[in-house]
Specification:
- This protein is an all-alpha fold.
- The chain is built from 8 helices and no strands.
- The longest helix has about 35 residues.
Amino acid sequence: MNAKKELTGFDYFSYALYAFGGLGLEILLMMIENQVYGSSEKWAVSQHLLHWGLTCLLWGRMTFWLVKRLPSEGESVEAKNVWMAAILAILGIAYTSWVWEGFKPYQEFVSLGAVKFAGQSIYYLFEGMLITLIVAFGQKTFEVWFKTRKNIPFGGLLLAFTWGLIHILTQDAATGLFTFVLSILYGLVYLALRRRVKLAYLVITLIFIL
């Protein structure tokens, strides 16, 4: 029986781009919906919920395909790693609160209302999956290419130049800078938790939501 093919740095880079492309599926979905419903600014609550639901299905399917290709789980996590991740999470939430000029979930609840807020929160859980996958595959890419395991947040940098850059192109420079900073922070969280993808997902998504 043939031995399993060893994945290359380019393979991992491709998977990171697949995860990023998975996020981009929402843009294609929204283009179709805008033709059907009109501008998203005028969507009814049910149309927003349908959009988030369909987006979650697309993102969930992409995540399901990619998790099978993840590198092996990282090293054991010690108490100091948990504390480091906790400090990074506090910094991330504080930074988000500063940018939003208030606690983000509260601001969104007031703006969206209870039903849309709940729908968007579920949507964030799925977005966090692909964000974490970009970090994980991106980190592995450069570690294979550079043959190093040094704690440089390569995954966070790749996220910044994909997810962060697209926010500059589709929204504005301020939003792009915000996502750029968060991307680096997510990369640091992944390293702090010793490349344990499941744990990193929990912390990254917590920062993302809060």
